[in-house]
């Protein structure tokens, strides 16, 4: 483990402390055991009852604080005893090995009394303690074993001597171990096999550790498993010894030199049967399980702070993990997950997280199977809309274990505040949300499905109960891959705050419905006219006959009035996949909301669009202003030397200065019969203007290139 988990997960990470209660008949030595443990010598005088003892975490084997509580029938009432039982984590029932009466009381009094005070499904672990073993030369185990077989809540039995200090430390270690590494959730002694919940948890752990999904754990996978759980790899001979133990007991425990699931489960059964519960518990807790064999909330939902106006995205490491997960389950290597492959992937989940609507939210192949791109898109969608659910899903897949990170939170990138993006006029986001707004049946669903490359013919095959209000896919803008997330907003008189929150708005109207555009115009005026969210109007169903919209002005004039791009004609009634021009346009507007793009087409890639956007860009305007300011300041510095000409009179000086500036602008780097400007101003040295010259040439060259490109575009357009 790394990043705070570079050690095996101890039980102390799961339990805050352990409370041990000692009960039993009078004069069996309960108080002597506690005092011998603390003072490491037998007390000459024993009080009726020892005070509660707290052992610090740093002196216990499991590094967890331990409280030891004594019970005295002479000093405490039955009510106090019941209260102590309810507070205890483990109870030691003490008897004297030389006193048969005290042994009989174990079953006739103490076990029934304890069980009455605890739930049947959550019995307290019990430790039987045979004290005063120094007084006899025989063992009481023959009498105790039938009792242990009868009551499954009994973890173990320890014979000890408070006088000789025999097994005193072991007694309290076993008591502590019974709490931190209980047998009950793992193993059923009657059937001599692991319980279903334990088998289910270990099966999930096996599938996560089987990184190539071949059904076995090879040497590399076993070593990785050993290292992340116990912080030490196994030597080659040790690995072979483990396999030989499995081969000796079950025939199909090892296959192709790898450990099968049956072999993996057998090893853990063997650990439990031999009293090494801590081995299995270390594995379970490393993979996020608690004492009830449920994944802990701390594991599934690590802390992740998301400030307002920030979004969540998967980072590069998360996409690499998801790519390897997809490849692991794409057994036929067709770059798509069949229903069986998807079901196999979700076997590590307690439920199937994706419904049938996912197939209409992301890209699929011709058979309706989720493609590699669709798989990544769905994870991107989940991260953006519900990051907590994404963390939960990554936890089921074992992200933090396989990537050796502290938690799934390391897979998430929290973007900066959108206000900062607007101030800096650039964004680092990769996912952009577009709310699609329009009246019912105006073609919004067609827009969503067109993003996934589906024409009208394919859309008609979608069942009503499988429809999705979301669609997400990648879009390339100026060579950059971005995710565009479309959200179909239901028609309503007023939009909620959540329905307004987005990066760009797509207002859709039906060209064949005269009442369709009025809703778009009304929603725009109510919510977006004064906002900084860019809007694009889409004229859907453009293959149908266009009718006049019942509104005061036409859609085109409306866009011109509100300084919006003209309505974009769109149809999904095509032979092939519908055009993605409007999606490029929407993504571009979301990426650059500060830039007022005035494209006559929708491609943003043709010569006209590139020239127009470049000439109107803030960068070029800034460069031009800086160059003009620099030249003007240089000219003003020379006014004093040209005083005889420029300062002839007050009115004339202003006129001459303006003419001088105009002359500079007109003649910069333009060859003439008199040469460039710098030959006329010979007293301006070359070193002074070296920096300005470079920027002037660069700006002028870029401007000429843009103008020539635009001229060529217009010439070609006229020829057509």
UniProtKB/TrEMBL annotation:
It is a single-pass type IV membrane protein. InterPro entries: EF-hand-dom_pair, EF_Hand_1_Ca_BS, EF_hand_assoc_1, EF_hand_assoc_2, EF_hand_dom, Miro, Miro-EF-hand_domain, MIRO_dom. Residues 317-352 form the EF-hand domain. Keywords: Calcium, GTP-binding, Hydrolase, Membrane, Metal-binding, Mitochondrion, Mitochondrion outer membrane, Nucleotide-binding, Repeat, Transmembrane, Transmembrane helix. The chain crosses the membrane at residues 694-713. Residues 15-181, 429-592 form the Miro domain. GO terms for biological process: establishment of mitochondrion localization, microtubule-mediated; mitochondrion organization. GO terms for molecular function: calcium ion binding; GTP binding; GTPase activity. It catalyses: GTP + H2O = GDP + phosphate + H(+); UTP + H2O = UDP + phosphate + H(+); ATP + H2O = ADP + phosphate + H(+). The keyword Cell wall biogenesis/degradation does not apply. SMART domains: EFh, RAB, RAS, RHO. Its EC number is 3.6.5.-. It is found in: Mitochondrion outer membrane. Its main location: mitochondrion. GO terms for cellular component: mitochondrial outer membrane. Homodimer. Interacts with the kinesin-binding proteins TRAK1/OIP106 and TRAK2/GRIF1, forming a link between mitochondria and the trafficking apparatus of the microtubules. Interacts with RAP1GDS1. Interacts with ARMCX1. Found in a complex with KIF5B, OGT, RHOT2 and TRAK1. Belongs to the mitochondrial Rho GTPase family. Atypical mitochondrial nucleoside-triphosphatase (NTPase) involved in mitochondrial trafficking. Probably involved in control of anterograde transport of mitochondria and their subcellular distribution. Promotes mitochondrial fission during high calcium conditions. Can hydrolyze GTP, ATP and UTP. Atypical mitochondrial nucleoside-triphosphatase (NTPase) involved in mitochondrial trafficking. Probably involved in control of anterograde transport of mitochondria and their subcellular distribution. Can hydrolyze GTP, ATP and UTP. This is Mitochondrial Rho GTPase. It comes from Camelus ferus (Wild bactrian camel).
């Amino acid at each position: 483990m790394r990043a705070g988990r570079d050690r095996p997960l101890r039980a102390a990470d799961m339990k805050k402390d352990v409370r041990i209660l000692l009960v039993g008949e009078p004069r069996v030595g309960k108080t002597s055991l506690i005092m011998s443990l603390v003072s490491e010598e037998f007390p000459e005088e024993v009080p009726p009852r020892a005070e509660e003892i707290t052992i610090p975490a740093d002196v216990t084997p499991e590094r967890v604080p331990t409280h030891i509580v004594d019970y005295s029938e002479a000093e405490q009432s039955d009510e106090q005893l019941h209260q102590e039982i309810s507070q205890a984590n483990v109870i030691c029932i003490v008897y004297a090995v030389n006193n048969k009466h005290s042994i009989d009381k174990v079953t006739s009094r103490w076990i029934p009394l304890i069980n009455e005070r605890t739930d049947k499904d959550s019995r307290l672990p019990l430790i039987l303690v045979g004290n005063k073993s120094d007084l006899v030369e025989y063992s009481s185990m023959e009498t105790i074993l039938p009792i242990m077989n009868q009551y499954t809540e009994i973890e173990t039995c320890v014979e000890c001597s408070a006088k000789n200090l025999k097994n005193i430390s072991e007694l309290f270690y076993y008591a502590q171990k019974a709490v931190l590494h209980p047998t009950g959730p793992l193993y059923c002694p009657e059937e001599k096999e692991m319980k279903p919940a334990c088998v289910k948890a270990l099966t999930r752990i096996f599938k996560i550790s089987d990184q190539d999904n071949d059904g076995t754990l090879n040497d590399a996978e076993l070593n990785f498993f050993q290292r992340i759980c116990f912080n030490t790899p196994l030597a080659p001979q040790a690995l072979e010894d483990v396999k030989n133990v499995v081969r000796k007991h079950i025939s199909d425990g090892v296959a192709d030199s790898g450990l099968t699931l049956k072999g993996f489960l057998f090893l853990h059964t063997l650990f439990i049967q031999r009293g090494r519960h801590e081995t299995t518990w270390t594995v379970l807790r490393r993979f996020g399980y608690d004492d009830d064999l449920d994944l802990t909330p701390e594991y599934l939902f690590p802390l992740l702070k998301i400030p307002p106006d920030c979004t969540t995205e998967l980072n590069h490491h998360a996409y690499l993990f998801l790519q390897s997960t997809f490849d692991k389950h794409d057994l036929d290597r067709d770059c798509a997950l069949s229903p069986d492959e998807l079901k196999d992937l979700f076997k590590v989940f307690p439920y199937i997280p994706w419904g049938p609507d996912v197939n209409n939210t992301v890209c699929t192949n011709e058979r309706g199977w989720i493609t590699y791109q669709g798989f990544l898109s769905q994870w991107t969608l989940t991260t953006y809309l519900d990051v907590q659910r994404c963390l939960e899903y990554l936890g089921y897949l074992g992200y933090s274990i396989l990537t050796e990170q502290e938690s799934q939170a390391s897979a998430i990138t929290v973007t900066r505040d959108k206000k900062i993006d607007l101030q800096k006029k650039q964004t680092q986001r990769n996912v952009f949300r577009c709310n699609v707004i329009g009246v019912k049946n105006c073609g919004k669903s067609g827009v969503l499905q067109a993003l996934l490359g589906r024409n009208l013919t394919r859309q008609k095959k979608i069942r009503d109960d499988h429809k999705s209000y979301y669609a997400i896919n990648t879009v390339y803008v100026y060579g950059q891959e971005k995710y565009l997330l479309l959200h179909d907003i239901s028609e309503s008189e007023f939009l909620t705050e959540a329905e307004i929150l987005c990066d760009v708005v797509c207002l859709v109207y039906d060209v064949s419905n005269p009442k369709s555009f009025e809703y778009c115009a009304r929603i725009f005026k109510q919510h977006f006219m004064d906002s900084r969210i860019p809007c694009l109007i889409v004229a859907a169903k453009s293959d149908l006959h266009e009718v006049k919209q019942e509104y005061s002005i036409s859609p085109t004039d409306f866009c011109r009035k509100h300084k919006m791009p003209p309505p974009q004609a769109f149809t999904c009634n095509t032979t092939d996949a519908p055009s993605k021009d409007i999606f490029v346009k929407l993504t571009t507007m979301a990426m650059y909301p500060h830039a007022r793009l005035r494209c006559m087409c929708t491609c943003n890639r043709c010569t006209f669009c590139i020239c127009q956007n470049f000439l109107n860009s803030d960068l070029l305007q800034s460069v031009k202003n800086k160059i003009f300011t620099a030249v003007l300041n240089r000219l003003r510095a020379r006014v004093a030397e040209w005083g005889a000409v420029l300062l002839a009179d007050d009115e004339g000086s202003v006129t001459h200065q303006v003419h001088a500036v105009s002359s500079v602008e007109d003649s910069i780097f333009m060859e003439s019969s008199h040469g460039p400007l710098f030959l006329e101003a010979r007293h301006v040295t070359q070193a002074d203007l070296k920096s300005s010259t470079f920027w002037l040439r660069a700006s002028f060259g870029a401007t000429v290139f843009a103008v020539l490109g635009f001229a060529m575009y217009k010439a070609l357009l006229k020829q057509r």
